[in-house]
């Protein structure tokens, strides 16, 4: 396996100034198009493992067919969508909530209770898993395949994540994998961001499904000046807590399509109780009574 050791091009302070900005060809000098492992040349830290043609096409297509209906217009992707602005109501007045530019994105699986999140401060199925449970189940073999590759390519990170998944209520874990949630994006060019809300001691991943033709859309780590060209059947395991984003999609055919899948364990899912206990907590929080 090819191994590359990459020197930093930007220190952390300079890289942080790229937050919410969109990357161009000026932000990289190396494009990865073959299987390889990338390490920080100074620290020896693993940055990514990239494998070409690692996912059978039928497995990839099954994931797309199962999860594509989770995608909708979403104004909650924050920094990854280019940052926040005040909500503009239909009558033209300015609302009190911060929103981000709308992108096509969705979540599959389960969500944890986020501290201070008000009405969603409860562990729950995503809307997709609740409304399309048959499609959610149809996508589990795809998730299991990625889980298997995770265990083989990043065993240390996987074992830590699998251990916490095994200690999590099984109602909030996808199958018997190390994942609780899948984010699915359509034609979404992400601005520079660091992932949050996931298990910090795990390792991120990216899978893409493509139709039609387009160029660009590289996954870029600007701190290291490296870009990765994701094609059908490729898989990338990567440190998503480094700054990263996508370049522009160009030369797009009329039927172009890029679906990206990111599978992860939600940060607070280990705290989730059984669904019946979560329901009791909602009743107590809202009414002070268990029986209404």
Write the layout of secondary structure elements.
Blueprint: E1 2-6, H1 12-16, E2 30-32, E3 36-40, E4 46-51, H2 57-67, E5 72-74, E6 85-88, E7 94-99, E8 103-111, E9 124-125, H3 127-131, H4 133-138, H5 140-153, H6 155-166, E10 181-186, E11 204-211, E12 215-216, E13 219-221, E14 226-228, E15 235-238, E16 245-246, E17 249-250, E18 257-264, H7 275-287
Please characterize this protein's 3D structure:
It contains seven helices and 18 strands. It is of the alpha+beta class and 292 residues long. The chain has one domain: Double-stranded beta-helix (4-Layer Sandwich). The strands form four sheets. Strands 1, 3, 4, 5, 8, 9, 10, 11, 15 and 18 form a ten-stranded mixed β-sheet that branches.
The largest pleated sheet is described as:
10 strands, mixed
Count of individual domains: 1
Mean pLDDT: 91
Radius of gyration: 20 Å
CATH class: Alpha Beta
> Helical region count?
7
Q: Shape from CA axes?
A: globular
N-to-C SSE series?
Answer: EHEEEHEEEEEHHHHEEEEEEEEEH
Please give the alpha-carbon distance between the first and last residues.
62 Å
Residue runs with pLDDT of under 50 for 5 or more positions? none
At CATH level 3, the topology is Double-stranded beta-helix
Strand content: 25-35%
Per DSSP E runs of 2 or more residues, the count of β-strands stands at 18
CATH architecture term = 4-Layer Sandwich
| Percent range of helical residues | 10-25%
